[in-house]
Design brief:
This is NB-ARC domain-containing protein. By secondary structure, this protein is mainly α. The chain is built from 34 helices and eight strands.
């Protein structure tokens, strides 16, 4: 491992000394400040006497006029520098890359893109790595849509070096680019109608850059009227026959010489045209390699082209890349060399400039990044993000050393601090933008197979931020993925507190997905880490109540868990108390349903009335806490209680509000539950159009999880409405109740199972 340069180390120490000095200023106190101020005034007076005593009157007049102006200007400059804010991501979607004015040797392919954009809905630009597919697609988009407001850009290359982004992840990124909430889709194919709706008739051009497999974009609509879609990448799979890609191959000899001459100068290229041609041949026509050699030669004007040709000629194709890498690294200063080694060995492919500085332990890495970029060793992507050029990503050391662990620890702490800041700002636009860029990288940080020592709490803070973000976007699969990764890391580090939090999160997500058996398993693992019930955190009691309610009708145990949850909450946790009241109301409704089934109608109605009163309190608390998810859940349960109290108008009103809140919060599961509830209420009206009810249920099913009571109920209704498909819906409904097979189950699950079996 190389060492950081002396200059950068001195800058870092001076910066740290300045920060520490500023932190201790309050300790000086008022008396100390007055003493120092008085001493300064005395020294100033003596200085004026000394200066004025040796100057004439006219000289003093000349000094008196410009001196205050110069002092004010200097003060303004110092204050402006000290107050310079840390650059934040821009609001909204990612900006489209700058226009590329000169594209050497690609005029024919550029014309093909323009022509095919007019003929077909999707234009595919395909070529091996380093052939300039992104540059050509960006230039073509600027020509198809010269105004920035008509351009939309999605870079689908993810932070994982070894695995491409999944089709669902790509679809979510595209929806965000089109200002659509990504949480509205459960599968990639669900995004196609959203893309059509967002682009039709707008004249916009959507560019999907750095696509690696066709399966990532196979869900795209084949044509969008009044708009264009351009897809650029390497494509390891063949696109369908209906799409004829614009294929980029190696540059021709003349174009390659022109590109090399742009970097080394026409005069130098003309002095030895044979050597220039041989260098282009050695690069196999790759624009990336030609640019890299050109930049190195530009930094070494005294080296003859022929000597480099002789060195390259003796090497095989595989060895040429290592030779060029070695030439570039030899000229790097120590700080840039260390940054390159660290970046090339990271388990994540790219970081922003601030994270690169954290790796080095320096206030800034701008100079090192600029040096590496000048040699083509790294590239800036997505605004201020940097990644090692793909061809060189194996150039770093993967071995674990104390210095590598220290660098990784600094990086994790940096991400934890950023996640804290931006999670607190959600749902503000700048916080959404930051998480949209960084969420995949944060997941990679959590999923590192061997976490560095002493990073457990920082990883927990990263997971906290991701949990807030993914809940906001209703991305439950990513919530589960983050919780699993955190649990593995915490277990490896021996941090039981963080592991318990991760297990509870998995429990909560699995309950939403309708899998109480798996949820119970994770709850037990969390509970085993906290032997004494009195030491459980508040969330553990709440999940315990939810598990008990999903497992059966042990109402006393559920009530006890909710009491413990309320006792563990702080008095100022308004959102927590709103959740407690919502769960109390759910318990009362469940008790009422049981009594109703047993023929105790009056007692059941009293419980429904009590639940209604509790829910109005919960609704008020949720509104004060600014929790739209809790508000929607309270409205949904209010609709149910009013339905049981035979107040149809109130039930419809609350259900409409719940459905609207779920839609605004992009909670498709909650919205789908409301549709099932609305369908059930409509079925009680003998004159209701059954086909209309069936359409409601068809609309609900894609948003529901594969398992759960609501999913089984939807299939039960559809089986009765469409007798010709009753067997299909019976099997699907029973499959939705499979998580309760072999374990205790609530009475409503048993009743549903019986009704489905009779279809």
């Amino acid at each position: 491992m190389t060492d950081i340069s002396r200059r950068d180390r001195v800058r870092f120490r001076l910066s740290r000394l300045s920060q520490r000095t500023g932190a201790h200023l309050p300790e000086l106190g008022l008396t100390g400040m007055v003493t120092i101020g008085g001493l300064f005034l005395l020294l100033q007076e003596e200085l004026v006497k000394k200066v004025a005593g040796g100057l004439e009157l006219w000289q003093l007049a000349l000094l008196a006029i410009p001196l205050p102006v110069a002092t004010a200007w200097l003060t303004h400059a110092v204050r402006r520098r000290s107050r310079k804010a840390t650059p934040q991501p821009p609001n909204g979607r990612l900006p489209f890359p700058d226009r590329i004015d000169l594209l050497i040797g690609r005029e024919t392919e550029l014309q093909q893109v323009r022509d095919r954009a007019k003929e077909s809905g999707i234009v595919v630009v395909r070529g091996p790595m380093g052939m300039g597919t992104s540059a050509l697609a960006i230039r073509a988009t600027w020509e198809l849509a010269p105004e920035a407001r008509m351009q939309r850009y999605a870079d689908v290359r993810g932070p994982d070096r070894d695995r491409p982004e999944t089709p669902l992840s790509v679809a979510q990124r595209v929806l965000r680019t089109l200002d659509r909430p990504p949480g509205v889709i459960q599968e990639a194919a669900d995004a196609a109608p959203q893309v059509i709706d967002a682009l039709t008739g707008t004249g916009r051009v959507l560019l999907l850059d750095n696509v690696s497999t066709w399966s990532q974009v196979a869900w795209l609509p084949p044509r969008v009227p009044g708009a264009h879609i351009v897809v650029a990448g390497t494509f390891t799979e063949e696109p369908p026959q209906r799409i004829e890609p614009v294929q980029l191959g190696p540059l021709g000899p003349e174009a390659g010489r022109d590109l090399l001459a742009r970097h080394i100068g026409d005069d130098r290229a003309a002095r030895d045209p044979r050597a220039t041609g041989l260098l282009v041949d050695a690069c196999l026509g790759s624009p990336l390699e030609i640019v890299r050699i050109g930049r190195w030669l530009a930094r070494n004007p005294g080296i003859p082209l022929k000597s480099l040709v002789d060195d390259l000629r003796m090497l095989s194709i595989d060895e040429k890349l290592g030779f060029l890498l070695d030439l570039s690294i030899r000229q790097l200063r120590p700080t840039a060399k260390e940054l390159f080694v660290l970046l090339a060995g990271l388990p994540i492919a790219e970081v922003d400039h601030q994270a690169a500085a954290a790796l080095l332990g320096l206030p800034s890495a701008e100079d090192a990044i600029r040096e590496l970029a000048g040699l083509g060793l790294v590239e800036n992507v997505r605004m201020t993000r940097v990644r090692v050029t793909s061809a060189f990503r194996g150039g770093g050391a993967e071995e674990r050393t104390p210095r590598v662990d220290a660098a990784w620890r600094r990086l994790v702490e940096h991400f934890a601090g950023q996640a804290d800041v931006f999670a607190a700002r959600l749902p503000a636009a700048e916080a959404r933008t930051w998480f949209a860029i960084e969420d995949r990288a944060l997941l990679q940080v959590l999923a590192r197979p061997e976490p560095a020592p002493k990073t457990g709490r920082a990883l927990g803070r990263i997971a906290d931020g991701l949990e807030t973000w993914f809940r906001l976007e209703q991305r439950h699969e990513d919530r589960l993925r983050a919780a699993k990764a955190l649990a593995r890391a915490a277990k490896a580090l021996g941090d039981e507190h963080v592991q318990a939090t991760a297990e509870l999160r998995q429990c909560a997500v699995l309950l939403i997905a309708g899998d109480p058996r798996a949820a119970r398993r994770h709850f037990n693992e969390a509970a085993d880490l906290r032997v004494r019930v009195e030491s459980w955190p508040a969330e553990l009691h709440l999940e315990h109540a939810a598990i008990l309610l999903a497992d059966g009708d042990e109402f006393t145990a559920v009530e006890s868990a909710l009491v413990r949850y309320g006792q563990a909450l702080s008095g100022g946790d308004v959102a927590g108390h709103a959740l407690r009241l919502i769960n109390v109301a759910a318990l009362l409704v469940r008790k009422g349903q049981t009594l109703d089934h047993d023929g105790h109608g009056p007692e059941a109605r009293r419980l429904y009335a009590d639940a209604r009163a509790v829910l109005f309190q919960a609704l008020d608390l949720a509104g004060r806490a600014g929790d739209p998810g809790a508000e929607a859940h309270a409205e949904e349960l209010l609709a149910l209680t009013h339905h049981y109290l035979d107040l149809a108008y109130d039930a419809r009103s609350h259900l409409e509000r719940a459905e609207r809140l779920y839609a605004e919060n992009a909670d498709e599961i909650g919205r789908a539950r409301c549709l099932v509830q609305r369908a059930g209420a409509l079925l009680e009206d003998p004159g209701q159009d059954t086909e209309e009810v069936a359409k409601l249920l068809d609309d609900a099913l894609p948003g529901l999880p594969p398992a759960g009571v609501s999913t089984a109920l939807a299939h039960l209704h559809l089986g009765r409405l469409r007798p010709e498909r009753a067997g299909e819906h019976r099997d699907a409904g029973l499959a939705a109740l499979a998580p309760w097979d072999g374990i205790a189950e609530p009475r409503q699950v048993s009743e549903l199972r019986t009704r489905l079996a009779t279809l």
